[in-house]
Amino acid sequence: MSATPIPRTLQLSLIGVRPVSQITTPPVNRSAIQTYVAPFNKGVAKELIEREISRKGQVFYIHNTVYSIYQTANSIQKAIPYARVGVVHGQMDKEDIEDVMIRFYNGDIDVLVATSIIENGIDVPNANLIIVEDADHFGLSQLYQIKGRVGRGNTLAYAYLFYNEYKQINKNAEKRLKAIQDFAELGSGYKIAQRDLMIRGAGDILGPEQAGFIDSVGLDLYLKLLKEVIEEKKTGVPPTPPKPVTLFKIDAYIPQEYATNEDRIQLYQEIENAKNESDLLAIKRHVRDVYGRLPKEVENLIDKRKIDIYLCEEEFEKTNEYDDCIELVLSRKFSELTGIGNALFESLQPYLEKISVTYLQKVLKIRLKKEGNWIRDLEAIAVVIRTLYRKYSKRANG
């Protein structure tokens, strides 16, 4: 993948239906396109075109309405009499389109006023300015493709995405424009596609007959079930039913003032998808670097996910939460290991004032009082149990 797949295609790759590989290395001497989003101003557009022509460059001017495209071209011609202006759109004859494009390739046209017909397959190294009218009307992947028509050579290129300042822009359009400006570096196609997926959703993956089923279970659960089926088909191994996560009664969330809605959704997904401590540590560092010092609620959220990862191991049977304590029920595999009871008691000496350990029906249980920073105590106790289990399991297996 070297460009921007549509959300449905990206989702198919993310759930494993289609393989994906990325080409992230740009061509030699290629520079990132300087991208700006601003309200439309004729004077600014005129100045930009004049500046580009003065440095012997060419200009794409995107006006995506056929009935008024010639009027726009005439307006540019009147404002800049010495500019050689051409027009191309999808309703022209094939021969006429080819003629205009050949003249543009050869440098006989300075400003090409065009519809979105030019978004694919156009490579003009000398065209290093693109102006887009009503950029909020375009899709995110489409904008990224259009922007990519410039900067094909070794000259610094500019993209100006204009919108009508007197017209109210819907929230999705604002998100698209913000994304195209934020992800301006080279090789951002995958990030753009991910953001497009977040804004638009994945669409109908397996045809219209699935809509009712998806509505019944929810899109996230449906995609999770689909991923499990795909994995089972690939490996021949049925998925292991996951242990339910514990919904501890603590303030564990990302505050609204800490990150934007989109970023918070992405962070929640990253934390939930973390598979081990290393993943969580990387997420924690990234969040701190981007958003600043972690609030207590975010710390709790990461700690809770870390505990969930621990409690999914086979040494734990289940976890019960009560008003005043947390109960860890250890598995029979753990409880039946020779000598592990005494080792557990000794290892938990620092917590004896906060915990009680019982052995009923050949199963060890630990109760932790919900006092002070009990979530950190619970994490530490889970680490002790995991360490002992690995040690004594290895010893039992020879």
What do you see in this structure?
- The protein has 398 residues and is of the alpha/beta class.
- The strands form two sheets. Strands 1-6-5-2-4-3 form a six-stranded parallel β-sheet, with helices on both faces. The chain has a four-stranded antiparallel β-sheet with strand order 7-8-10-9.
- The chain folds into three domains: 25-186, Rossmann fold; 247-312, Aspartate Aminotransferase, domain 1 (Alpha-Beta Complex); 313-398, Alpha-Beta Plaits (2-Layer Sandwich), CATH 3.30.70.
- Helix 6 runs antiparallel to helix 7 and helix 8 packs across helix 9.
- Residues 207-214 have low confidence and may be disordered.
- It has helices at residues 7-14, 42-54, 69-79, 94-105, 140-147, 171-182, 189-200, 211-217, 219-235, 261-273, 277-291, 296-311, 332-335, 340-347, 374-396, and strands spanning 34-39, 58-62, 85-88, 111-114, 127-132, 158-163, 316-321, 325-330, 355-360, 363-369.
- Helix content is 45%, strand content 14%.
- Helix 4 (94-105) links the parallel strand 3 and strand 4.
- It is built from 15 helices and ten strands.
Write the layout of secondary structure elements.
Elements: H1 7-14, E1 34-39, H2 42-54, E2 58-62, H3 69-79, E3 85-88, H4 94-105, E4 111-114, E5 127-132, H5 140-147, E6 158-163, H6 171-182, H7 189-200, H8 211-217, H9 219-235, H10 261-273, H11 277-291, H12 296-311, E7 316-321, E8 325-330, H13 332-335, H14 340-347, E9 355-360, E10 363-369, H15 374-396
Parallel strand pairs: 1-6, 2-4, 2-5, 3-4, 5-6
Antiparallel strand pairs: 7-8, 8-10, 9-10
Helix pairs in contact: 1-7, 6-7, 8-9, 12-15, 14-15
